[in-house]
Amino acid sequence: MRILKIQTLRGPNYWSIRRHKLIVMRLDLETLAETPSNEIPGFYEGLVEALPSLEGHYCSPGCRGGFLMRVKEGTMIGHIVEHVALELQELAGMHVGFGRTRETATPGIYQVVIEYQNEEAGRYAGRAAVRLCQSIVDRGRYPKAELEQDIQDLKDFTRDASLGPSTEAIIKEAEKRGIPWMPLEARFLIQLGYGVNQKRMQATMTDNTSILGVELACDKEATKRILAAAGAPVPRGTVINFLDDLEQAIEYVGGYPIVVKPLDGNHGRGITIDIRTWEEAEAAYEAARQVSRSIIVERYYVGRDHRVLVVNGKVVAVAERVPAHVIGNGRSTISELIEETNLDPNRGEGHDNVLTKIELDRTSYQLLERQGYTLNSVPPKGTICYLRATANLSTGGSAVDRTDEIHPENLWLAQRVVKIIGLDIAGLDIVTTDISRPLREVDGVIVEVNAAPGFRMHVAPSVGIPRNVAGAVMDMLFPNEQSSQIPILSVTGTNGKTTTTRLLAHIYKQTGKVVGYTTTDGTYIGDYLVEAGDNTGPQSAHVILQDPTVEVAVLETARGGILRSGLGFEAANVGVVLNVAADHLGIGDIETIEQLANLKSVVAEAVFPDGYAVLNADDHRVAAMSEKTKANIAYFTMNPDSELVRKHIQKGGVAAVYESGYLSIVKGDWTHRIERAENIPLTMGGRAPFMIANALAASLAAFVQNVTIEQIRSGLKTFRASVSQTPGRMNLFNLGNYHALVDYAHNAASYEAVGSFVRNWTTGQRIGVIGGPGDRRDEDFVTLGKLAAQIFDYIIVKEDDDTRGRLRGSAAQLIIQGITQVKPDSRYESILDETQAINKGLDMAPDNSLVVILPESVTRAIKLIKLRGLAKEETHQQNTGTAIADSQNGIAPSSVVNTLL
Description:
Elements (H helix, E strand, L loop, with lengths): L1 E8 L12 E7 L14 H8 L15 H8 L3 H15 L7 E5 L5 E7 L3 H21 L4 H18 L3 H12 L4 E3 L5 E4 L6 E4 L2 E2 L4 H8 L1 H10 L7 E4 L5 H7 L5 E5 L9 E4 L2 H12 L5 E5 L4 E8 L2 E9 L2 E3 L6 H9 L4 E2 L6 E2 L5 H10 L12 E3 L11 E4 L6 H14 L3 E8 L6 H4 L2 E7 L4 H4 L9 H9 L10 E5 L4 H13 L5 E5 L2 E4 L2 E5 L5 H9 L5 E5 L2 H7 L6 E6 L15 H13 L1 E10 L3 H4 L8 E6 L5 H8 L3 E6 L2 E6 L2 E7 L12 H15 L5 H9 L13 E4 L4 E4 L5 H11 L7 E5 L7 H14 L2 E4 L12 H13 L4 E4 L3 H10 L6 E4 L4 H9 L5 E3 L20 H6 L1
Parallel strand pairs: 16-17, 22-26, 22-27, 23-26, 27-28, 28-29, 29-30, 34-38, 35-36, 35-38, 36-37
Antiparallel strand pairs: 1-2, 2-4, 3-4, 5-6, 6-7, 7-8, 9-12, 10-11, 10-12, 13-14, 13-20, 14-19, 15-18, 20-21, 23-24, 24-25, 30-31, 31-32, 33-34, 33-39
Helix pairs in contact: 3-4, 4-5, 6-16, 17-23, 17-24, 25-26, 26-27, 28-29
Protein name: Cyanophycin synthetase
Family: In the C-terminal section; belongs to the MurCDEF family.
Enzyme class: ligase
């Protein structure tokens, strides 16, 4: 077997709208292409021996063991690779269950789709599954050591990519509330929400967290001074910078026992408590100097360690932190008890699990000695043997929830202290013998105030009730169910995507909001270009959604991005599907128009239930998408007699209709006429039907988002098919005695669309400079030739500079074949070089003629036209000839309703 390609999907996709995290592996079975599993000697036995847990896979039989039944009866190896990849992730602790396997149009080549939790682990699992199956085919077995290594590697990938328990808790809460999130590129930042409504977090610090509060909390001595001045109970202590000052500091705090800790430390590093001798004090000083230049010496207060979590001025959780310890059983040594304790699956390395494995340091041995033990001692049954003096979870400690036990005075004190320090999220370390009594009564003290406190002890305490502290954070960041989203309008289709996206963005600008939009020629925010290029995939969408100034996102969504990575967002407010026609077939394993329609339907399906799928009622493949989406439906049509739209309106639906020369919005028993088509520059005086359809789609998408008719009208009347606003989309130039039209038509549907305008050119000759991308099928080029023969009086056939793997001249020959099939006496010539072909078309143009250029490089074509010196771009219908007369100006606004009903 051979892996040809592995792709990672991160959003709604061709395979699943709901399951966003998928690996797609293109797998060539090679010699196994026609060999089912039951014909491979020993394969079933070897697979069961390697992965007996596959017994839990149901598969199509729908029962436990169903998959293994399929293997025994005979199934293809690609299907088996899918299940093995999922099971390897399960064995590594990642719960995944979705998979698909489909053979492509090329026999023996399969697409294997598997769910993942961690991207690197998912890709690794796919490769490991192929190795495992190949090994069983070749040797009848997969060595146990290799399987164990695979599982360990998968665990390592997951651990290395872990965001930490606090961030994970916040993300889970965000997902539960439908708040989108994404990691940012620097400093472990997480973005919650989109655009102008976004919030950012780093661990448990938010973009509301005061830098002054963080700086103060990180300076433990300054924190203690400011709290002491406010009357809060804090330990007596001082800061020293030299060992020579240690003895005097001990005297200042009142003598032993003392605590020595670094001024700038965290996670309990470098802290030694309950110091009772000078030798211990010296050793503690040296340990603290490994962490910080300045050292705090404090009086040691007897009591239990508590963490009080305050969010947005309110105490939301309290936990007693118990230092790392083991409990004797009367048989095992302390060393054996530690080893047994660390086997707990809840214990992991660092912060990657609920608890942390116990590791010993110098203070551990001192503490053991003070208790009269060594590692080889056998504590009596039930005896607690402490292994760490500090109670941090990061050093192996555990937590007991005490939220319901804190005394009201202590609660008030904690909330007051956090406000004094100036933090939105803070963790107070309090030492007291009894948290249910006021600190002043039991000589309790506030030891520290921590910025960016960990949530682990609260969301998963060892004992007690887990607290939804992340919920309190979400309530603070998005109070009163404040929206975390911005309107997202996604536009797809075979043709017209860029024009419709730009027009829709322009219409939305009439509302005064900052619009971010992506197109095949660039990413824009407001009136400014952010990045040039074909930006119609998820990465470009993220540029818009991550920008804190954007209030509305209008995203052109092309097939390639959906196939490669999925959508760049979880759901849109409006999904527009313009049309589906033969284009790019045979690329990316999309072989038929039906498959292409299924791919583009992702945009219609990935819409919020209260949003709208805006669908072309005149395209039956697009109209059928209404059955797939849970969103509301809005149709647009060029046919005022559309039966589908008539029934839709009778049921209370909304539609955009071209009727009697007007673009109109129809709903129920009323009609809003937006504007006459001839007054909308984009429609070329009403001569470009496909542009009218694009305008209908954009108008309807804006309308269902509560953009007013007046704002829509203003947008339509001020948007032009110009080089500046729609480069390569019906750009018309006046060259004095003749005109030139540049359009990036490159497939049959777009040829037909351009043709609908060209046929309305009633003066002079119609000259076409035509071609198509080299990666299309032979039959596609023949079709382009046939269409060109029906549109143009004279044809110049050229080829793209990039032939995309085709032999130079072969595409042109196929186009000529199509031309001659329709019109054997057609006038044509072949000039393969695009520049020469364009110049020839412009040089030969008679008076009043129209030269239509369908280029590979729009920029080059426009430059060649402008070099003529006389070129004047025309954008208003009056410059394209006589407008189509409308003899029915007096039609009442309700007339279209009568037609439709």
